[in-house]
Amino acid sequence: MGYFLRVYKTKLFRLVPFIIGLIFALVVASQSGVILATSTEILWDNYGVPHIYGKDTQSAFQAFGWAQMQSHGNLLLRLYGQARGRAAEYWGEKYLESDQWVLTMGVPERARSWYKAQSSTFRSYLNAFAAGINAYAKEHSELIDDEVEVVLPVKAEDVLAHLHRVIHFTFIVNPEEIAGVTKEEPKAGSNGWAIAPSHSASGKAMLLANPHLPWSDLFLWYEAQITAPGIDAYGATLVGVPVLAIAFNNYLGWTHTVNTFDGWDAYELKLANNGYRFDGKVRPFQTTTLPLKVKQKDGTLRDQPLVVKHSIHGPVVTQKDGKAIALRVVGLDRPGVLEQWWDMARSQNLKQFETALQRLQLPMFTVMYADRDGHIMHLFNGDVPVRSQGDFKYWQGMIPGDTSKTLWTKIHSYQDLPRIVDPKSGWLQNANDPPWTTTFPTAIKPDHYPAYIAPRSMNFRAQRSARMLSEDDKISFDEMVEYKHSTRMELADRLLDDLIPASRKQGGELAQQAADVLEAWDHQANADSKGAVLFAAWVQEMDLDKTFGKPWSENLPRTTPDGLADPKSAIATLEAVAAKVKKAYGALDVAWGDVFRLQVNHKDLPANGGAGRLGIFRVLNFAPLSQGHFQAVDGDSFVAAIEFSQPVRAMALTSYGNATQPGSPHVGDQLQIFARKQLRPIWRQRSDILAHLEERKVF
After folding, report:
1. Which phi and psi angles does 72 have, rounded to 5°?
2. pLDDT for 572
3. Is the distance from CB of 308 to CB of 322 less than 8 angstroms?
4. Closest C-alpha among 595, 53, 84 to residue 292
């Protein structure tokens, strides 16, 4: 009997740590509002946001795959088909260039190697996400377009290929840039704010997330909450990505902006004897022939094998006139992007968060951070090449590829990257400007970094951003939301004080009329603003690089450039533009919203906001619609405003709605809120979600 009693006590003793751990987990879960689930479920709120409760992490990933299919199934499968490099085989000739790009860059092959490189645990999560996609498609095949079902079944490698195509071969470099010698300005943009307790009316840190991306294709955001053991995070990710890319939890949050980052180079090769010259010798190309099929109109497939050449720099993308261009892109050897994002969302303090960041698996994007402890941070994140020479401008051009002196092979460490934590100002901003202008007084000194890290400049949207933050000593949550929706044009503030008096003094009758309209205008691009259309049309015809008499100065970064270099020419342009505006709309003071429209899923509303180059914080970019009217196609997409109080206060908006799947009530259902310049509440607590429940799915 004594033996059995000793055994019982021993086993009980061994169970003590487990019992204590379980009690601790229950206490933490209770305090954080996390419910330990015995089953996995998706609670869909009435804005189509999935709130996923996973009994374990794998189940949460599987449910997230299911949720993305329910909201974006057709789009997701099409994107995965493109990431395979087989879209032309599935859907025809119009996808041929896409496939050639994806295959030349090695996306499908590298995705397979990346899959093998994942930890066994995270690999199981990716498998679960793919399984959720396939399970939804099997159960609801009638809701999936027949045309895209050819992509099924989805594998985890497809998920990684999609991520790889999006980040490395769309955001870092895309095929449109390769045609020119000089790199283009990034089409994608964002705003990000981090406000410290010292600058906050509530004494709590705040964060503003505000990416500006096209309202279609692989750029669409998907809003969600993921709750499982060890995580309770809310945020958004790009469709098809299995983890949140912008997120917050009860302790901290972050957002990304597209940084002034150069992660690729085009090398010009001198061809010789079926090879290329390098360090005085001729090296042979490595040549691979890849299968590529193109679906014909009659349904048959045409074989069109793709020959890909590689130099020591990377794949060759063009070859003519005795020269070739090869690409070198960062981050191809870093397969842990998704796990890094996942661990960022699981972090509970700055130290844990930076431990995840220090892996440098995410090859680009500024990180703007705030937390419950009151810390804020700006990190110029990225895999920045260690370059032996040249400034930022030099590396924007074509690089000689015949010498090892220009061939970079290493990446800067985390400690080398521009970074600031808790600046004296109490605020940080980024509007796709270099890190040097994140706050004032300047906290990150450009002279402390290599000249090739980032340019020295500050765009008008960034100037507007810094102005709003610096002119309000104590910003409340409601004020932050109001500032987020500001449509004031910094460019108008800078130019009209010169243009209007010059037009009155030197201009003709039409210039005088235009001056009257511009003087009465409030410098905003609200739906009812009159004068904004005229001013924007004038700016469109001006070369801003030559417009100003005083150029941008690093010593006066927020008040330059300024003044008209050639008032006479500016007035002549104003008269010509005024004539066109009057002819097109019948008046010079046409309302902004009459010309610029919001159109999603048969909704048609007057727009507010405009191009960032005008110095507008509330960004919208437009494409011609018909007869002098324009439709929003890009800009404010996902917005989140967060205050790290207890409980966390948060509001958000996904401008175009949280779904694209035909028949979903959430295609464009948030557009009216967008038009009103408002955000909607975020429901994170289970009781709030149940009070606004639209649908419940239990697995």
Report:
1. -140, 30
2. 97
3. no
4. 84
Cβ-proximal residues to 213 (8 Å cutoff; 6+ apart), any chain: 188, 189, 219, 220, 221, 634, 637
What separation in angstroms does the CA of 72 have from each of 131, 435, 446, 526? Answer: 16, 35, 43, 31
Structure tokens at 127: 């498998």
- pLDDT tens column, 392-439: 999 999 999 999 999 999 999 999 999 999 999 999 999 999 999 999
In DSSP terms, 695 is beta-bridged to 44
Concatenating the DSSP letter of every residue in 40-80 gives -EEEEETTS-EEEE-SSHHHHHHHHHHHHHHHHHHHHHHHH
Cα–Cα–Cα angle for 461, 462, 468, nearest 5°? Answer: 90
DSSP 377-445: EEE--S--B--SS--TTGGGS-EE-S-GGG----B--GGGS-EEES-TTSEEEESS--GGGSSSS--S-
Decide: 476 and 415 in contact? Cβ < 8 Å.
no
Helix (H), strand (E) at residue 497: helix 490-506
Burial class of residue 31 in the structure, from the number of CB atoms within 10 Å of its CB (0-12 exposed, 13-18 middle, 19+ buried)? exposed
3-state secondary structure of 616: coil
First-residue to last-residue Cα distance in the chain: 46
Q: Quick check: 329 and 124 in contact, CB under 8 A?
A: no
Q: Which run of H or E residues covers position 124?
A: helix 120-139
CB 302 within 8 A of CB 309: no
pTM of the model: 0.93
CB neighbours of 172 closer than 8 A, spacing ≥ 6?
261, 263, 264, 329, 330, 331, 363, 364
